[in-house]
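ok so heres the complex, two chains, lmk if somethin looks off
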Amino acid sequence: MNDSGSQKGTVTVKRGLAQMLKGGVIMDVVTAEQAAIAQEAGAVAVMALERIPADIRLNGGVARMSDLALVQRIMDTVTIPVMAKARIGHLAEAQCLQALGVDYIDESEVLTPADDKYQIDKHKFDVPFVCGAKDLGEALRRIAEGAAMIRSKGEAGSGNIVEAVRHMRTIRDQIAELGAVPEEELVRRARDIGAPLDLIQYVAREKKLPVVLFCAGGVSTPADAALMMQLGAEGIFVGSGIFKAAAVYKNGVPEYDDNGFPKVNPDIALKYAKSIVAATTHFNDPKAIVAASMTLAGAKPMDGVDIRQLDEKQLMSVRGN
Amino acid sequence: MTEVVRDATSAPPHEASRPLVGVLALQGDVDEHVAMLRGIGARTLAVKTRAELDAVDGLIIPGGESTTVIRLLDRFELAEPLVARVRAGLPLWGTCMGMIVAATDVAGVDQRSLGLIDITVRRNAFGRQLASEEVPLAIPALGDDPFPAIFIRAPWIERAGAGVDVLASHGGHGVFVRQANVMGTSFHPELTSDSRVHAFFLEIVARSL
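and the predicted structre for the whole thing:
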């Protein structure tokens, strides 16, 4: 607190920025050019990361925080909030991103985890964090660590919506269930799902999380976005769904630019991004979703994978707990 | 305690004459405004379509991203009817993003706005998220108690035209302005439990009927 009584980095302002993003689409970008396309399409924020999840899945190796000079360029290019991913438990990456001045940090299972036991103590930061969750217990543990926004995990880079649906339904069902149990049961519920009692009591009373809940991991068409909004997501993260659909191939092989980034067709990316934004806004109006989808005539969504054909070690959603 | 559930047909006779306040619901913190308005007795409507826009007695453009909402207003052909209704006297309140969308000019960037209140705003003027803050703000029009103002990547008012009242300032810049039926705040009263700014707007709506 200073002379004017101003307080920065409070829980209210951290959670508040996520509230401003509701009803919107946050798009993964790996270059400043992609960030400009996302903003032009109507994205409410961009997420900077080293490689989009589908490419991490394709190429393997260790996925880390983005090149900081690139994050800076993205911040200089767009006026919307810039989020950036840090590895689970990698508090030094998070410190760098805070020092750079990004607007949100995603402590993300999409990157290769840096700590197999502990997540970052997010209360120690003034910059807010978003974290992924597969169920209510995981969401509340992240909030207890200081997360100011939650996204259902889904299976990033799969182009398959089934995991996103499973995780969103699980979180919503568990919230509804808690809202219906007698108060004396809440201590046992807290033990069972492994979450602090005060957060369990909050959810039981308010029938919602104390922070905004977005969906991530598998959205690749306008109808996917509308589905997740109808299931209770307050907004959408799109990872690979836009720029993978706009990837440029030669004889079936992805092309790369001089800096090693996959080439994308900007017109197709813009069309995809706009259509997913429109479907997110009008998620309850099938005619509007049809209109948004029609703009994609001739373009093809990214290839998807059947989650059941993946080995446990290929799943990203099981990282962090 | 069980709440008494009433259907629409048994609503008291004055129900329909209470003003209907719309919250533009293309993107942003719509629910927070709706909850606050209901808490002080207003009827509310989330506005996404032309028909919903035509039905309301006052409109709030909530907090959110101005680049997103100005594009969606154009894409869904709502900008023109919104401007026409506000020019004809519809009370309008923009919070943060909403004030940017309603302004005459946006400083420093090439961004379209609707020109409904004669101000120039500067986006993210106080800084990025790390500069977001909670401040006890003096607003004489609302009484002696300071208002718990929440600024999030907030804009400030760089220029206010002759017909514009500046009702509060912070850091040397206007953050609460009113010109006739249109008002704007850089901060977010909908994120607090203090309903005074909402009551202030509701009175403008009530007097316009």
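quick notes: The interface with chain A takes residues 25-32, 48, 63-65, 67-68, 71-72, 75-76, 96-97, 109, 111, 123-124, 128-136, 150-153, 188, 191 of chain B (CB under 8 Å). thats all i got rn
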